[in-house]
């Protein structure tokens, strides 16, 4: 692969993690956001553009070796906001990649694409056993992201890897996240694997750390080359002391999307 990796949403939470970690893994970066990225590193290219501006996105994608699409609203919002930023934005990212000849796209999907999927009675949940079952309009935008990725892989031959990210935060802060945490270090390892995997075609994989309590099967992610190194269990004692042992009958723990499946996450409770 020649050319830098174009990262959209580079000023966000995950973007900031990748801006530090991907160069350490050997990748040159072109960081794109709707606001200037703070403190560009030496050698880091930076672009200010709106992901829903297709011509700006095509310009930004020219000469890139791959595209990592993170930009978007990261939780529930109104339908117009989700439809514009997340759905139109993902179309523009993929279409820009196609027009600019970028052969590989890594998409930041989410567990909320399949949020209403129940926890299996036993064993681990594979992606193939968790088809689209969105828990929010945000989840619908991630289902659409995966569908657009599939289309661009089949119709135009792009390699498209969709990462169904769990909870990508500096550390877990709830007992659900003892299962769903994706550590900053593993975020870099997962994206690095998605960029390096030889000819992945179209792939959908969970994005979580090697958490003792995880119930999402990492076999497919490992097949891409992902080797998670972190485990949320080191935070378990403190979190369980503060919040109690998880009640596995509670939807927060019995469904993939956790609290996003509860009434509190009705779109009517959110402003754009
Ligand atoms: C997501 O997709 C969100 O972007 C993030 O804010 C968390 O809510 C995360 O999922 C999660 O499920 O913990």
UniProtKB/TrEMBL annotation:
Record flagged with keyword Transmembrane: no
Family named by the database record: Belongs to the NAD(P)-dependent epimerase/dehydratase family.
Keywords from the UniProt entry: NAD, Oxidoreductase
Domain NAD-dependent epimerase/dehydratase: 5-170
InterPro entries, sorted: Epimerase_deHydtase (IPR001509), NAD(P)-bd_dom_sf (IPR036291)
Descriptive protein name: NAD(P)-dependent oxidoreductase
Domain of life: Bacteria
Alphabetized PANTHER family for the sequence: 4-EPIMERASE, PUTATIVE (AFU_ORTHOLOGUE AFUA_7G00360)-RELATED, NUCLEOSIDE-DIPHOSPHATE-SUGAR EPIMERASE
């Amino acid at each position: 692969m020649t050319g830098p990796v174009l990262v959209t949403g580079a000023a966000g939470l995950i973007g900031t993690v990748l801006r530090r970690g991907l160069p350490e893994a050997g990748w040159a970066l072109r960081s794109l956001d709707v606001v200037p990225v703070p403190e560009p590193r030496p050698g880091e290219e930076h672009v200010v553009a709106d992901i829903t501006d297709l011509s700006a996105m095509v310009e930004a994608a020219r000469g890139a070796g791959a595209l990592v699409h993170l930009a978007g609203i990261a939780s529930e919002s109104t339908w117009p906001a989700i439809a514009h930023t997340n759905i139109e934005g993902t179309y523009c990212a993929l279409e820009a990649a196609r027009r600019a000849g970028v052969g590989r796209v890594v998409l930041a999907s989410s567990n909320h694409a399949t949020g209403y999927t129940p926890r299996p009675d036993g064993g681990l949940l594979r992606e193939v056993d968790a088809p689209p079952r969105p828990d929010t309009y945000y989840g619908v935008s991630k289902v659409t992201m995966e569908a657009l990725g599939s289309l661009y892989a089949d119709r135009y031959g792009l390699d498209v890897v969709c990462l169904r990210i769990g909870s990508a935060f500096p550390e877990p802060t709830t007992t659900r996240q003892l299962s769903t945490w994706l550590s900053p270090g593993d975020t870099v390892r997962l994206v690095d694997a998605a960029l390096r995997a030889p000819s992945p075609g179209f792939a959908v994989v969970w994005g979580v750390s090697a958490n003792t309590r995880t119930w999402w099967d990492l076999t497919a992610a490992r097949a891409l080359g992902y080797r998670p190194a972190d485990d949320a269990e080191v935070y378990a004692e403190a979190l369980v002391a503060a919040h109690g042992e998880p009640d596995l009958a509670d939807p927060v723990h019995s469904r993939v999307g956790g609290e996003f499946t509860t009434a509190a996450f009705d779109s009517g409770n959110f402003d754009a």
